[in-house]
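ping. complex inputs:
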Amino acid sequence: MLVSNEWRLYVRQPLVWLCALGLPGLSVLLVQGLTVADLQLAKRLTMLNITVVMLALPVVVAALTPPLLQRDRLHTMQELISATRTSQFTRRLNRFVAFLSLVAVICFCGSVLQLLMLSQHPLFDASVIYTALKNSLFIVAPACFLYCAAALLIAQRVNSALPVYAFFALLWIGYVMLASVTGSPVLAGSSIIHPSLYEAMLVADPLGFTAIFAQFTGDQTNWSANPTIVLNRLAWLTLSALLVWLALNARSMLNRNAKRVLWWRLRKTAMPDNQMKMPAAITHHPFATLLVSATKVLLLNRVMLFVMALYAGAIFSEVLAAIDYAEPHSVLTPLSIDALNRVVWDMLPFAGCVLMALWSWQLGWQNLRNGAAEMLAATPVTNIQLVMAQASALCLACLVLLGITAVAVVVAQLLVGSQIEAGIYLRMLTMTGLPVLLFGWLCLALHHVMRSALVAGGLCLLLLMVKFTPLLSLAGIAHPLLDIAGTPLQPADYLIGFSRSEQTFWPYLFMWSIVVVGALVLAINKTHRGAGFVLQSWRSLSRSGWLAVGVAVVTLVGFHLALEQERPYMTPDARYALRAEYEKQYGHWESRVQPVVTHIDTQVDFFPHKRLATLKLTLHLKNLSGESIKEVLVGSYPGFKPEMLTLSAGQLTSHNQRLQQSVFQLDSPLLPGKTVTLQAEVVVKGARRWLPSGHQVLLPEFSYLRGIPLLPNIGFNRQYTLRDAVRREEFGLAALDMPLPSSFMDAAPVTTVQSTPVTLRSVVSSPVSHTVHTQGQIVNQWLASNRRYTEFATAEPVRNIPVWLATVQTSTSHRVTAGERSVDINLTGLTRNLKSGSQASAQQVHLQAVTDTLEWFSAQLTPYPYKQLTLLFTPEFGPSGYALPQVILMSHRLAVRARPADDAGFDQRYRRMAHEVAHQWFGHQIGYGVQADGSFLIESLAKYAELVLIEQRFGKAAMQSLVDYERQRYQHALRGRLTATRAIVDAYSSPDVYARATLVFARLRELLGDEPIVSVLNQLFEQNAPGQKSVTSMDFVTRLLAIAPAQHQEEVKRLLLGKDVKPLL
Amino acid sequence: MLTMTDVSKTYSDGTKALNDISLTLPAGMVGLLGPNGAGKSSLMRTLACLQAPDTGQISFNNTDIQQSPQRLREQLGYLPQSFGVYPHMSCVALLEHISALKNIPRKQAKQQIEELLTLTNLTAFAGKRVSTFSGGMRQRFGIAQALLGDPKLLIMDEPTAGLDPQERQRLHSVLIRLSKNKLVLLSTHIVEDIEHLCPHAAFMMQGAIVDSGAIPALIAPMQHNVWETSAQPAEGIMLGERYHFGQPLWRVYHHERPGADAVACRATLQDRYFLELARREVN
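pong. complex structure:
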């Protein structure tokens, strides 16, 4: 009876309807966004259910608690309701039951909608329905019960809505953070950072997700309710029931207040009135008074003091726990930049923006909440004073937040004896704090413009969700401006500071500043002055109000257009459509004979301070076929349109602007063995609004241009086809002929003729302050017009990935002899690690790794074919190590600043350098001629080289330590995996091609020793003919099986072709 | 002093709170009488520049308050019908806070606060938190804050609600004294208050001003037509029913004596107000 009475009240609450529509709507969006081709449906449904429970349920419960469970107090009806005949216990119990049923109905609606949408999938079967029921029982229902129990308890304990929101925000953030450090697959980029925490979460996860994800190994199609999960669920249900019992029997707030008043009176009788502490005198300027009052509201309230203390503790512990962390087995000598980088990119912006949203809500509605709105709104305070005082208070609060962050980090640094650099603090906190403040001002403007606290608060929550949660990207919506009031500022780098993103930071900050100032001007014009009445209708909005709106809108739209102009923004769907269109229009060129690039002449001019580089390319195209060629298709990648493109002895006959494809008709057919030249000019500009992409970096201190995707592509580019089978079907494309490498045992694949190695000649110019690098030996150097010109040429053909670099870092050259050959090792960027004092050690380690690797390959396989190898230690721009032909890029942070931890079993610097040098063979000599093949021959064989070289240099224990580390990595990667495990030769996921490959080769070495493996590798190098006949993974497998002793045949086969990875673990 | 011309306001739920109100109010005390839901508080809020009317113009001392709301706020004292207070703030601290918002110089504010505390009989409670005040004390605090800054326009919505007779009396004296050169707009259900205090009154019903003017002029047409009788009258317009020693007495408006025991009475503002209400009911 009373429950139905509650429901009658619920259906009249707009917020209930908002939640009832919002959560199911979000559930539907998630289904649309999360489309992974080979994902099993049952797992996918579980993922979807968990995502909703993790990200949306706390928000729904937090939103509904004040209007439904705290309504008596919030609307001063407590006495009236308490005076009714229903007992407090009965009333609370019925309210809880009704509240729980409402939340559960909303959640189940979301789950049912997700199930209905998945039912459209061709693989849908009864097992998915069974999973839905199981998820409802084990995931959704207990989570609803737990959150509702917490809501009931907190609703009994506090007088206003703010602590409820703060409590659920902490709960929400806390759980998401826990999930992100324990490898939840729901959160992109999440990995197991604290294994012990992960083990604890397996049994004690309040929502039980960790134990469920632990069963998501590759082959398991679904999760099962094992004893751990059942016990976990029962334990949390019992705890939830206990919370409910406590809440039902909690003393009424009326009684509690009465007791407090009694205590106060007793205290007062002991203290004469004239001794009572009077509030401090306040200033008598309206603006100052408002500012002081608003600041007190924000900072001197018990809940906020508690939240701030909690925040400071979290910052301190996060910094202290891993201030010197570089990577597993490796530590840094921490500096302020490292300490701050641990917290200012996630904890500070997130906590800051959440607090800003809460604070702006407090400021906007404090008078109404206290019932003093009309009285104060009628005072002669001007709108500008009112809004600006609150904006200034937010600014002060933001400064306090930044101050707390700084103090917490400084204390952590002092405790570990780390060097403190005040300038770094000032710069980093200012640059990361400004966007937080802008977000706060935007929320404040919303609270002044919107007449309803609910609507304004809802909009602020929406901004937070858009900014911080993956909801929109899960729904396939992405845009840089969705990071509301945010900038693309990247973590500061030891070598170049903020140089990588500073150019991008200021335009974003400037744009958001205009938008936010516009919003504040609008707020000044249209504020309800805290009373919630319409003071200024849109129709009668002043000119300055409209101007502010106009400027803000124009700024946003203008910025979007500028983004489009700099680099057309493409949604994933648009990209798929473009690829499909390319294949439809030019697919037939795949069967047409095309010339092949055999030599590239390049003139590259770097202008680092202008973030500009120009390239003049001359590609020599040779007809390697037996037929004559009449037409040539020349294409370029999106965003890298050549300024000029001409073909000698040929005329442009058609050009597709959208797909950037040009067809040239040769004046006379190109006969077999003959050559034509293609000339192209490309200008690469550092974008002002986009971050430098991975392989096109133009910064004052460091510039790096990789030939792909700058070079024109000849013929049909198979790399640019759609791979996803479902999408191919959607776009009406035939299924792609992409056989698994393991199928090459039966049918040898065709080697792409485009993989023919090339010779390179480059003239690279830069300011005299820079040194330049590329493939080949230096053949000439000269100065002209205050620029340094260097000419390089390769003596032998190399894999066709040219690269050009310019850096302010100095180089040292070391000659290393391996076998009968000597190689010049050019080390660039080692000189900046004076503070850590490990420069000499790093140089020694890297030279040792290079020498060992060159020697081993020379002795066991084939010598390094070139005369020089450049090792460049770079600022952080993505990869920790990256090997190009004759050039290796290494992260300065990991390769130079880091050193082995005291308990490290092996040296990560040595391991990584050996790995990257090994790619000069595995990757740049074999493994790149067959499109469908490669990961095994490139990455997995490089892991084999790591094992051999570490054992050779440091002994078996170090090698075993590496194996143990990779085993642990692989175990963690398997937890939460959603796709089926493939044979190692077919695998392409990082955990397989790196960690699992290490385990596979460690076992192969145990079984067979190195000799047969090296013997097979020798055969591969002998048989490999780049551009004509590339060896494949299966060549390795079949040859190894052929020489493996009979008793190990099965195990070797299982290791290389089997899908069962359990024996490796 | 205060002129409203064709002022209308309709809320988003369709409620027509103010319906084409045109009214001119002179200096002095003006009473606004009307039943619950008549739109009195909406009118008060609109006059206090807390909400904008949909149409119409309002001017105070020849200043258009929609164009220059700030000019009005600088001369305004406002007591809403119901209000809350900040927690943890003493009476004097809150008055100081509001005086700062009213831009009253510190010295002057201190003096005014002292005077107003005395005036509202709150001196003894100056250091106590307003949130712990009883209803009457809180109302007195509300009056004190409204009077801060010597406002030229004083808008008071139900100022005597919750006051005991003695405090009510005291407030009456204060208001009479204050209203000499300013406009005090008083909204109340207690007709007696208006009758005691205001030379002018306006009747507001269903969002419209049905009549307004000097109180004697409003009452004058009823003189000699108001009767009191112990038997329920069959004729005339019933103005009210009261009890005397448990016996009912009816008050009737009729141009002739409605019954043998009917006694002619002096018409009051309440009679006029009830007459308007009765007419509305009939319509």
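Residues 257-281 of chain A have pLDDT under 50 and may be disordered.
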